[in-house]
Design a protein that fits this description.
3 domains, eight-stranded mixed sheet, Thioesterase family protein, 3-OHacyl-CoA_DH_NAD-bd, 14 strands, Thiol Ester Dehydrase, Chain A, oxidoreductase, six-stranded antiparallel sheet, 483 residues, N-(1-d-carboxylethyl)-l-norvaline Dehydrogenase, domain 2, globular, single chain, Rossmann fold, alpha/beta
Amino acid sequence: MTGSVAILGAGTAGAGWAARFALMGWSVRVFDPDPGAAARVASVLDNARRALPGLSDRRLPPEGDVVHAATISQAVSGADWIQESVPERLDLKRTLYQKVQEHAADDAIIASSTAGFTPTALYGQGARRCQIVVAHPFNPVYLLPLVELVMAEDAPGWALDRAEQVLRGIGMMPLPVRREIDGHIADRLMEAVWREALWLVHDGVATTAEIDEAVRMGVGLNWAQMGPFESALLSGGAAGVDQVVSRIVPGLDLPRTHLTEMPEATEALARIVADQAGAQAGGRPLEELERIRDRNLVAVLRALKWAGWGAGAHLRDVDALLENGAAEIAGPIRSVARTVPLDWVDHNGHMTEARYMQVFSDATDRVVELMGCDAAYIAGGASFFTVESHIRHLAEAKPGAALHVESLCLAAEGRKLHLFHRLFAEGREVATAEALLVHVSLETRQAAEPGAELARRMAEIARAHAALPRPAGVGRSVGQKPL
């Protein structure tokens, strides 16, 4: 699903929303009277182009246009979704909604990025209530999937359904909040941690760097994939839930935290926090820190995707939505279409050798799947093993480059399957791979005849490709001089 979105306010959240929508194929109109808004959006878009496509093992849709509107009416007229990300001032937001509703379609969703206000608080006078929802994201919006979705009690069902459909369509994971509450869910949790962190600094117990180490080296890693309750359950060991409860309940009466107390917001405390946090950055500029953050998040999210857990399970679902559908077999099969992710890059600044093998392995998997060797066939006890392969490296593939593989079936005779893959980056051929596979029984681990339907599909594709020209590189060996 794609459409037209209006972004009102191009700060950190607004620019992130613009990037997320644009990279998922939406047409984006941005309104922000700040003269620096266009440059800010362009910078965030550049970061997003480097990072977001690499989360997917599929090609994202063609990028949507991003234009800057001179007025609110130009931005919101005809928009399917309107995302408000102006400063957290209730009067400002209410006034904005009245202006927006003069020009927006009656069925357009008006979503606020607010971290604290509820939909009921946002309505104010004269607002059409059913249009206004809270869609609170997390920074960077173009990478982190969570968006807290808050509706008023009297909101119509269609508004929730539409909101979830749009947000899932741009790769986000909407979390409906059961009832309105200031601060929603995640910010209330983060605020509790933030309060205690400030007390630890205030009381001289720990520096900002030590607190960050405590989170990122311990609890943060657990919470990234299971959250506090699942993690606590595991801490109970074999005794399970009862042991967890026996540990937690007595501790709630102990004065271990300041809970909702806040240290006095003095200039001295602010200076300590600023100096220590600045020292942690090591003099790195903000732009470099943003790129480091994005690289780290991509690595963590892709690891969770491999495990199929937490946010990684969500990313697998997003890939399923981006599936390219049935492939044509009359010509070379487009077996892979994806982007070079940041964690595929080596010390030379291009895609590392092992990832070429991964791309070609994925291409082989796709071809044999089209022939009928899919998950169900493999579960039945048979598959293909690669017995020989040869890769030629012709040019570089840089991070963020759009990749695709064109695959040919050179021969399919009995138990043998002979494939040739050509890898393109941004339309330029950068590598080829030739592979010989043998059909095997997974029980005996020995060569075996393929099933009748698989054999039929192998022969069908081999016949379709027999008349195609043989590309350069077929049959070459290591060290052979170029022709």
